[in-house]
From TrEMBL:
Domain of life: Bacteria
Organism, as annotated: Paenibacillus tyrfis
Domain called ABC transmembrane type-1: residue spans: 73-277
Pfam families: BPD_transp_1
Main subcellular location of this protein, as a coarse class: membrane
Gene Ontology terms: biological process: transmembrane transport
Topology class, membrane: Multi-pass membrane protein
Keywords, comma-separated and alphabetical: Cell membrane, Membrane, Transmembrane, Transmembrane helix, Transport
Localization: Cell membrane
Bilayer-crossing regions: 12-37, 74-96, 108-127, 139-160, 181-206, 258-278
Name of the protein in question: ABC transporter permease
Length: 293
């Protein structure tokens, strides 16, 4: 069927509008990348740099040569890897248990999990709990309180409930226990959901900020996002922070703003690299347990 002129006009206008919106959202990221590669002298002499005449890697060399940034990046990497793995284990196993009809007290556990979605205890009770467990100033304070969420649990529970019971019965006949059914049947079937949820967990752990400010007082355990905030404050004011003073000393030749842009690029690069490989799982993974019939 041949499209009408009005439909073709609408399509062209739609594509143009989406292109403009995409460029507007992309420009701030491009500006950050451009400034991070701009030569220090050119950045100081020019008020606005759109396309630098001289490119430089001095900001990246300077950041990667400082132990403070490398240590903070390592803390964030440990959070992302360990936290994501533990979150996937807890979410998938809890969802599988709650999906079994023979579980005693199933309604009680479902209501208890639902209440965590509807009501939040607040910052002070959370801090009191973490402190009473002796988790303050440890990396576990940034992992254990946020291991899973009710939304992920309910989605995966619905998925496990939709798996035909004949698969579980066949596995039981072959000698699999409940744990064997979970690892040999359920987990392979839920890989798209695990990939999608895993990326969400990884991004959340990688961007950990507020809980680190609340629970971590040790400079050696500060994740990268906290360090970036300190760099921003240090570059914008004259307030000195001993933990980041070495990164922006007055005698270094790279302007603080250029250092800040390079730090943002480095901190965003791992997620930007991982995202394209997991994007194909998003639609399928996010629809897990949401469609019946």
């Amino acid at each position: 069927m041949k499209a009408s002129a009005s439909y073709r006009f609408f399509q062209a206008a739609n594509y143009m509008l989406l292109t403009v919106i995409s460029l507007l959202t992309l420009l701030p990221f491009l500006y950050v990348v451009i400034i991070s590669f701009t030569d220090a002298n050119e950045y100081v002499t020019k008020s606005v740099v759109i396309f630098p005449e001289k490119w430089s890697l001095d900001s990246y060399r300077y950041i990667l040569s400082t132990g403070t940034f490398i240590r903070s990046m390592g803390i964030s990497a440990v959070l992302a890897v360990v936290g994501t793995l533990l979150s996937l284990v807890v979410t998938s196993s809890l969802s599988y248990v709650l999906s079994r009809k023979r579980l005693k007290g199933k309604q009680f556990f479902l209501v208890a999990i639902l209440l965590t979605m509807l009501f939040q205890p607040g910052m002070i009770p959370n801090y009191m709990l973490v402190d009473s467990l002796g988790l303050t100033n440890t990396i576990w304070a940034l992992i254990l309180p946020v291991l899973t969420g009710a939304w992920y649990v309910f989605l995966m529970k619905n998925f496990y409930q939709d798996v035909p019971a004949e698969l579980e019965e066949a596995a039981n006949i072959d000698g699999c226990s409940d744990i064997g059914v979970f690892f040999r049947v359920m987990l392979p079937l839920s890989l798209p959901a695990l990939a999608a949820f895993g990326l969400f967990f990884a991004v959340a752990y990688w961007n950990t900020y507020f809980s680190a400010v609340l629970y971590i007082n040790d400079d050696s355990l500060r994740p990268m996002q906290v360090l970036l905030q300190l760099l921003l404050i240090q570059a914008s004011t004259q307030v000195a922070d001993p933990s980041v003073a070495a990164m922006i000393q007055s005698e270094q030749t790279v302007p603080p703003d250029v250092i800040k842009m390079a730090a943002v690029v480095i901190s965003s690069l791992p997620i930007v690299v991982i995202y394209p490989f997991l994007q194909k799982y998003f639609v399928k993974g996010m629809m897990v347990g949401s469609v019946k019939g």
